[in-house]
Amino acid sequence: MKKLIYVLSVIFAVLLVQGAYDVFRNGDSGDAITLSNDNVEEAVARVFENEGINSCKSDIEAFYFYGTRYLGEEEKRTILDELADKMGINNIYEYSENRTDNGSEAVLTKEGAFSLVTIKLITYEIPEKENVISLRQYISVNMSIRDSIKSGLYYKNKLGEILNDMTKELEQNDTMETYGNDRILSLSIKGDTYGRISTEGQKSIAKEILDGLDAEVVFEYLPGEKSDVGGENVSDSGYCIYAYTKSLGEYMVIGNNKINVNIVYSYDEENNLTTLHVASPIVNYDY
Predict the structure, then answer these.
(1) What is the tens place of the pLDDT at every residue in 162-202?
(2) Strand 183-194 and strand 216-221: pairing?
(3) Burial class (CB in 10 A: 0-12, 13-18, 19+), 201
(4) Cis before residue 281, ω within 30 degrees of 0?
(5) DSSP state, 91?
(6) Residue 124 CB coordination number (10 Å)
(7) Percent of the chain as helix, strand, coil, to the nearest 5
(8) What is the rounded CA–CA span in Å between residue 98 and residue 104?
(9) Using CA atoms in the order 56, 46, 151, 145, what is the torsion angle rounded to 10 degrees?
């Protein structure tokens, strides 16, 4: 169990992510955080391999504001093709364009043996007045990579660099000032271990992770209790903790409390697996 604690602590220490809710950044730079050249990626990957962590998974998510101008179908396809090419995705992928309740989305999907990538150019149509509609364009990228923390860290950095470059032109006009600099770039890590962990065991693991991050507990919820942050009940077999550390650059605010670390447990009774989810600022997916 201490192996799992150590591995997840090392991984989470290199994460700097921006999530939903009211998020604040230390410093003025909106650039993606690039890992230093001290082979952190290789070291983390080596630890996972050496310690035999099972079913590890990296999830990269990006959501970037892409302006307000009209984009035709061919232009959307070109933008997604170019983004895929810069990410190293070949041209053997699925493409579609669909209407939604409040606009449309062009979608590129590529599934590999150990990964799934979905890239979207989402158009929101916002009624301003009679016969007048304004547009908001967003680029959305979701990547899931199995059994490769090294690839997860690499693509998180690479994707941030690509999207920052693609949206640089927006910073040179008043678009950002008017509509905001909406950017989310995150990497979440999930680690599995066999067996059910007691609540006291979960607390102990969480404490060691938080100690490694020099984080202080803000909210703590025992199995079955209702969270004041997400509003959902913590699972009957899980333990949930929200904390804050100065070592991570972004945080969200709940009331007067800063939060940028969330540790959650889930248990799969059928397969007898406990999954430890570590995220910043909070876990924002079903588990």
Answers:
(1) 998 888 877 666 555 555 556 777 777 777 878 888 888 88
(2) unpaired
(3) middle
(4) yes
(5) S
(6) 16
(7) 30, 40, 35
(8) 6
(9) -10
